[in-house]
Design brief:
Function (chains A, B, C, D): Nucleotidase that shows phosphatase activity on nucleoside 5'-monophosphates.
Largest sheet of chain A: 9 strands, mixed
Shape of chain A: globular
Pfam families (chains A, B, C, D): SurE (PF01975)
EC number (chains A, B, C, D): 3.1.3.5
Helix content of chain A: 25-40%
Strand content of chain A: 15-25%
Oligomer: homotetramer
CATH architecture of chain A: 3-Layer(aba) Sandwich
Family (chains A, B, C, D): Belongs to the SurE nucleotidase family.
Distance between the termini of chain A: 53 Å
Order of helices and strands of chain A: EHEEEHEHHEHEEEEEEHEH
Radius of gyration of chain A: 19 Å
Enzyme class (chains A, B, C, D): hydrolase
Number of helices of chain A: 7
CATH superfamily of chain A: Survival protein SurE-like phosphatase/nucleotidase
Number of strands of chain A: 13
């Protein structure tokens, strides 16, 4: 089994190293990841310049591009073969609810899925992030549990692991995405040259975090696994818009 | 009525100028757009540095950030008031089917929607793009048709206008997103210094472009309007994953 | 007479517009300038990606690169002819003393000079910068006074104009570069996410600003003109190093 | 003795690792280098956003900025002490003649010098670059030979080492900078989307490479050491310009 592993924190991040090691127990792992931290890069594809790949002493490859670039480049040309699975992570921090839209970690996995390959995004939820190796083991278990799927149909899973020691981990929950409150306003400040600047503010707290959501599962010590799809059509609203806008 | 207008092609692009003029016929328009072409920036949010805003002689404001940054910054602090509508575009080129995931134009509108404001993304579909002012008039009509919604509930619309003279325009269709074939492989090349480089290849042709899709509407001379939602949960697959992964 | 005009503040900056207009009185002016503010870009040449050129409605061309890129690209391929003169500016702010090493404005002119073309960098010194058109007229006079040089040998001039009304302007002084005190320390701060960040501090005040320097001339209401060269060899120290390091 | 070590190829480059090891034989070495390849960044200082520092597992620190940023940040705030020496390199490739104006490697050392600290830039000259450890040993020898200077006056040295086995190395030469022919024209090309792009061309071959120059020394198997200064004033031309431009 050959796994393409990427992330959005950069090829040097502890999360990807932990996951590479855990996956190596049962698969051949190929790392193609951004050369620097691209958190928040989302689904950005680099169209206005070419990409380059280099190899670090660790054997990991790094690209001067986004997480989506890395998976796109690896699958459609660089690797020279089609991986059986794309894994992205372990992200340093949660990707739950609306985060999935902005997340470079999810974007890397989604790119694999759009290219027809089963793909899994893995994030570690917490502030201090002390349990990367536990999270890596948990993620590797999920990967193995999925990998025996004989159907061959691609899927896209968003996995969030609470930052807990394995003794405190409660098991797995398949969830739907919750929803956050609106983000905090931008923080207006002044730089040392006296110019007004704005920092994007903190993400909102969980709003829809009831039972069944990713937020709820993780808050209760479970690994959250959410199957995702990529069709943004709001099917339930098609007919009412039809009435209003037809012309 | 106060409209925040942004795009991903940059504040100087002909598309945003045409749309600003058309919307000015019935609304107060505030332009906050990227300082340079950020096509493909998707939902990128700039977290690792602050943002600055400048004012062009045209009165348009431009930001050293992404389309999402522009809307986020404008709504959560810079404008000083809450716009009634966010409009993004007119994009130079189509945003249909899977494009919506990568599109900075759609991302800007989606940011407005996530902040609770009705939002509309507008793209011009074609190669030569000769009919910006027709497209702007068409888009302005859609905006006006939506704006009398008394419910106050936010919505997110993805509008694609064929690049046709108004005489050839057939009307409006409310559609679902189609689907593209996989993208072309990366194009391997060598730069003048002899180093291997890779260009992201062309997007795939339409795959699911049957009746009812955005591709089909535009190909037949109609303006395509797709209502979007942002919850990526694949609800239909929750129970089967529950069976497989519960532990 | 054909003049290539560039800057480091971006093609949309008031300084370059004022200078383009003043030079148009006696020369054909071609503007090729950065698409965004690249102050502090120094002599950066973009080697890891290709450059693109676009044309603004004003007729100015803009490049997704540095000031040096702009001049390099224009002279060695884009223009299709060899300009008689390269002018860079009017920069928004001083470029005196050690500033010349960091200055993108000076770098653009230096690139012209290294390509064998007489080149002049122009900067406006002051805080509020109210007198761009006066500075442009003064700079145009310098350009005309230089342009009748029959020798054909390239030269490199660094011109700094005080931000004064023409009535208060005292004339021209040919000067040597002064020297600044060391820059202020970096300003340590914390971003809204709690991470330590550092801002580069303010430049130092003038240290060597005695008679004969650019600082002195401008402080006394004169236009400062400093001829520059680009050989950094410290000839006076060759023999002592020879003694110490020969092996 | 405490040495600040930086470069422009990125903190992960083989050249800086080799030099760090060689210098560790007789000094305490602190590495603060760019997070990614910034070749050609020249003296760029990052003014429009703050800088961040991270620590790699190797103990090296890396910065989201230019070589000049790294030295500036380390000396004026991050290190917390004033290093006795700034060393930059080993650069992957030559920095001779006019290269010194564009070189990020030289810029990093020059920043140390402008901050009042003795500073040395080291580059490896060749195509395949097989002899990093030899070059590191040679550079360490130069550093040691300089370090016993009791005068305390800062100096700036530009060292170029030929890529030879130690058996073929001929000794040291103190040199002046040579001069290159003009760079090759930009290379016009078309990207996969059909847009015209331009690559900056190759640097010119050596033009002034006679005896006494850095080019000549390296071509003959010697380590070239050029003392540099940073005052760009063309003193020899002051009086003739005085005559022409006085007004």
């Amino acid at each position: 089994m050959r796994i393409l592993l990427s992330n959005d924190d950069g090829y040097f991040a502890p999360g990807i190293a932990a996951l590479a090691e855990a996956l190596s127990g049962f698969a051949e792992v190929f790392v193609v990841a951004p050369e620097r931290d691209r958190s928040g890069a989302s689904h950005s594809l680099t169209l206005d310049r070419p990409l380059s790949v280099r190899r670090a002493p660790s054997g990991f490859h790094f690209v001067n591009g986004t997480p989506t670039d890395c998976v796109h480049l690896a699958v459609t040309g660089f690797l020279g073969f089609r991986p059986d699975l794309v894994v992205s992570g372990i992200n340093h921090g949660a990707n739950m609810g609306d985060d999935t839209i902005y997340s470079g970690t999810v974007a890397a996995a989604m790119e694999g899925y759009l290219l027809g390959i089963p793909s899994i995004a893995v994030s570690l939820v917490g502030r201090e992030l002390n349990h990367f190796s536990t999270a890596a083991a948990v993620a590797a278990d999920v990967v193995r549990a999925c990998a025996d799927d004989a159907s061959g149909a691609p899927y896209l899973l968003n996995v969030n692991v609470p930052d807990l020691p394995s003794s405190a981990m409660k098991g797995r929950r398949v969830t739907r995405l919750g929803k956050r409150h609106m983000a905090e306003p931008v923080v207006r400040s002044v730089n040392p040259r006296g110019e007004t600047i704005y920092w994007v503010g903190a993400v909102g707290a969980a709003q829809d975090a009831g039972e069944g959501t990713d937020f709820h599962a993780v808050a209760n010590g479970f690994v959250s696994i959410t199957p995702l799809q990529v069709d943004l059509t709001q099917f339930s609203a098609l007919s009412s818009w039809q009435e209003r806008l037809s012309a």
